[in-house]
Write a structure and sequence with these properties.
2 copies of one chain form a homodimer. In chain A, the strands form 5 sheets. In chain A, strands 4-12-11-10-7-5-6 form a 7-stranded mixed beta sheet, with helices on both faces. Chain A has a 3-stranded antiparallel beta sheet with strand order 13-14-16, covered by helices on one side. With 375 residues, the first copy, chain A, is an alpha/beta fold. The first copy, chain A, starts with a helix and ends with a helix. In chain A, α4 (94-106) packs parallel to α5. Chain A has helices spanning 2-6, 35-46, 63-80, 94-106, 120-129, 242-247, 257-273, 275-295, 323-332, 357-374, and strands at residues 13-15, 18-20, 24-25, 86-91, 112-117, 134-140, 162-165, 167-168, 173-174, 185-188, 205-209, 220-225, 299-301, 312-317, 335-336, 347-350. Chains A and B meet through α2, α4, α5 and α7 of A and α2, α4, α5 and α7 of B.
Chain lengths: 375, 375
């Protein structure tokens, strides 16, 4: 029965009229997107908004495209539950450029910001902030290879802001609670934004590279509460100044046209599902996989149970020598993107919003079948 | 006869099985792209390189996508005729971010760089350089609203580098000759790159936002000669350091996946045409339109004849009151994107690589017909 399941392949993707084998896409990002966003993108590449021109051949200042950016910005604010005291813009350069722009805009030479170190990306953010001012790392989970989220740390009221990373793609930890902070909170939500309801009003700034839960690579969302963090008193190059992009509605220069379009259609899909339903859906997928990891004697999880991410499930084989065989079985079952990050190894299944539970079931089936053969 | 021509519409674009009216796309950028690049993009959104996954759902570190970036970088170097002493990378943020990155990387606090001021973008580059060091504007055509390219200026040997803009999208001027420079030359070729053969070895740095002759919005090409300009002695944030992107082959962080893919297929098309043939093709289109502007008593060009751009043809109606009528005629004839930049007004026809001469002929036909009615 398990054997039969593990070899089951679904023929549901129709491409150029050819029935394709369904690939279960566990990629850590760029990652699976809702089919509607991809279909809308294909249609717009052919004829955008009835213009007779392709989406990628038209002025970003055309009224048809300005409507795309405006709707995407409005949807972000609606989904984060924030009002007119917040601005949302789409920039370029990924979260990595935000690691620089945040302290460049907000951290003066002699000021201090507090950072929580929960993994590679948090560490990079710390490093970049050090170019501009003083950094106080309030807590770190590096002592146990970032396998947990530190708790019970203190954020100094003298800090300009507190920076954290809500989900750690590489290690598979997620913050389900944010600390009470005496200073404005800045959060990198690149890999779990819109995977569950968040009260945006708890944050002075939220940012996210689009390419996990929100869209394709090529655009970065920045949501800022007006005047929440005092601007640093240094000269800021124009393209790196948040206020310039806010004042110009993400159109100071040519934006990443296609990426914002796909993001809009991903946001529309997220809204149609609803964030509470999205959280239930994501919880069901994660519960299914973690239950199998805990049950199956061949595998074990690598993260403290209370901090296990619903987005990125990290696990290993108890006998590393079996890893190659398991990857071969995954490949045969069209289970794609399961290799752990090159810096940590093992397995990682990313279960972003658009992944269906049937894909998680296919992975669980493969794990059961592997146990039958090797256990 | 002219009347008949001006109303001719071509039914050649097939979208979703519906025969569409051909729109003649004179957009200044994002702009017309070769049909092959759009078709390849649609196919890759459905199934990228036989992976069964969409181009925008797959890891940028998959071997299939790494091959895209590697081929695009190699094609750029081949088309610019440069060897292993040059690096080509694809960044984000448009030419506008380069206005900051160039002086941040190369212009020390007490050093001076020479800039040629030929329009809005050149002026922005000057402004940003001023954040980092001293700027010497060697010449400017601002006295005549940037309607010509200054000549016979002197570039000081004390300059760190000389910066110029090869084509001015807003004003319709183009540099067909570059000055003999005692210092390394940095050129913003955003709007005429790959429109004609260029000896890349004459430049220490060439950069270009993709969204005119080379691809869609969302990626920026930077080509740098190794060690040609000494690095400034300041700390440079990681994401703004050219060497980081070079050392990581445009993959320090997630690149703008889709935009680079479309760029690759645009570069393949450019190579298949050949740069000498491309120049002849672009010259023929520009000659056809400028000849009509000079012949037709209702219109006049706004640029010094020797500096007229082949990419952006700026012209006005001698009687501005007729402008609305002419735009209405253009609209009826499916001639799109002809409004001059909001800062200068009048008309602008952008004739980038992918525009066919039949589109220019359709515009010329409309101008003749307008003369018949109003002349």
């Amino acid at each position: 029965m398990a054997a039969k399941n593990s070899l089951r392949v679904s023929l549901i993707r129709i491409t150029n009229g050819i029935l394709m084998t369904k690939v279960h896409n566990f990629s850590a990002g760029p990652a699976i997107l809702p089919p509607s966003a991809i279909q809308e993108s294909i249609a717009a590449l052919q004829n955008f908004a009835g213009t007779g021109l392709s989406l990628i051949e038209i002025s970003h200042r055309s009224k048809e495209y300005e409507a795309v950016v405006a709707e995407a910005q409005a949807l972000v604010k609606e989904l984060l539950n924030v009002g007119d005291d917040y601005d949302a813009v789409f920039l370029q350069g990924g979260a990595s450029l935000q690691f620089d722009m945040i302290p460049m805009n907000f951290l003066g030479d002699n000021e201090t910001a507090s950072y929580l170190n929960t993994g590679v990306w948090a560490k990079r953010a710390v490093k970049e902030a050090g170019f501009f001012g003083n950094v106080n790392v309030v807590a770190s989970s590096e002592d146990k290879n970032f396998s947990y989220i530190p708790k019970d740390y203190v954020i100094s009221g003298d800090s300009k802001y507190f920076h954290c990373t809500s989900n750690n793609t590489i290690y598979g930890t997620e913050m389900f609670h944010f600390p009470t902070s005496p200073v404005p909170v800045v959060c990198d939500m690149s890999s779990d934004i819109f995977s569950r309801p968040i009260n945006g009003n708890d944050f002075a700034m939220i940012y996210a590279g689009a390419q996990k839960n929100m869209g394709p690579a090529g655009t970065t969302l920045v949501v800022l509460k007006k005047d929440a963090i005092k601007k640093a008193s240094r000269k800021i190059p124009t393209m790196l100044d948040y206020q310039i992009h806010i004042d110009n509605g993400s159109m100071y220069n040519t934006p990443s046209v296609f990426a914002i379009f796909v993001t809009l259609h991903t946001l529309r899909w997220i809204k149609s599902v609803g964030l509470e339903a999205m959280e239930q859906r994501n919880k069901a997928k994660a519960d299914l996989l973690y239950a199998e990891i805990d049950r199956n004697g061949l595998f074990r999880g690598t993260v403290a149970p209370e901090d296990r991410s619903r987005m990125n499930v990290n696990f290993v084989l108890n006998n590393p020598e079996l890893e190659a065989d398991f990857f071969a079985m995954c490949k045969a079952a069209n289970l794609s993107g399961l290799k752990g990050h090159r810096s940590v190894g093992g397995l990682r299944a990313s279960l972003y919003n658009a992944l269906e539970i049937e894909s998680v079931q296919a992975l669980v089936d493969a794990m059961k079948e592997f146990e039958r053969i090797k256990g």
